[in-house]
Design goal:
Layout lengths: L8 E4 L2 E4 L1 H22 L6 H25 L1 H4 L5 H19 L5 H28 L5 H30 L6 H19 L10 H26 L1 H5 L6
Antiparallel strand pairs: 1-2
Helix pairs in contact: 1-2, 1-8, 2-4, 4-5, 4-6, 5-6, 6-7, 7-8
Length: about 240
């Protein structure tokens, strides 16, 4: 049985707010990501791989926090209050893609995939803005969320998943296997959301997907730190692309 989610209303400082459970899990996810990003930024000078992972963590963390605020202040902000989270999430996906692409040692493939990733990000951002402006009022949120989820699934699966598997098979580092593990945790988070799967009325698809995202991103974080500690010279070779 899939329980119908309960939209909890609460008041704070005279404001009529919504979904404190979603706000809590979003902010928790965001704060963890921001802490992860700070710790990776301290190691970011070695290679664009680490800088890009740090940017991914920071932007996704901000997206999660803005997402929680968009839910809580939905009575006041409406659709415009959700747009910052969608934009930040889209840009964060670009950085996870570039992080993995930056490890490529083939100059031709590096340039091609970098260009495709940048163009994809621009197209997705324009699509979100067009939907927010032109789509029927009742469909704006669902359509924008669908675009963001598809972009995230494609970006994470093809970069951290496919490229991570390729690097692992080529013997770059055993820690790319942990990155692939993070992908396998994150993919179900999208399925939970798209299939509208709710564990309890007060712990709905949003909360469960946030929990899975946190577990997956923690796996990414651990892999990146271990790569920095044990195998940084492997990534350094990519700077001498041929």
């Amino acid at each position: 049985m899939n329980p119908e989610p309960l939209v909890i209303e609460f008041s704070l400082f005279g404001l009529d707010l919504l979904e404190p459970n979603v706000l809590l899990t979003d902010v928790l996810l965001g704060l963890f990501c921001l802490v992860f990003s700070v710790r990776i930024f301290r190691r970011a000078a070695i290679h664009p791989f680490f800088r890009s992972w740090a940017w991914f963590m920071s932007l996704f963390g901000l997206a999660a926090i803005f997402g929680g605020l968009g839910h809580a202040f939905a009575n006041y902000w409406g659709v415009p209050g959700k747009i910052p989270a969608w934009i930040l999430s889209t840009v964060s996906v670009y950085y996870i893609e570039y992080a993995m692409i930056s490890a490529l040692q083939n100059k031709k493939w590096y340039k091609l995939l970098s260009t495709i990733s940048l163009i994809k990000m621009i197209v997705i951002l324009l699509l979100i803005i067009l939907i927010a402006i032109l789509a029927p009022r009742d469909n704006k949120i669902d359509l924008c969320i669908l675009v963001v989820i598809i972009n995230s699934l494609a970006g994470v699966s093809l970069s951290a998943g496919a490229l991570g598997w390729s690097y692992y098979r080529m013997g770059f580092s055993r820690h790319f296997k942990r990155i692939m593990g993070g992908v396998l945790i994150i993919i179900p988070s999208s399925a939970v959301f798209l299939l509208d799967f709710n564990l309890f009325q007060w712990f709905d698809k949003n909360d469960l997907s946030h929990l899975l995202l946190l577990l997956g991103i923690t796996a990414f974080y651990q892999a990146v730190l271990r790569l920095h500690k044990e195998d940084p010279t492997v990534l350094q070779l990519a700077l001498d692309r041929k």
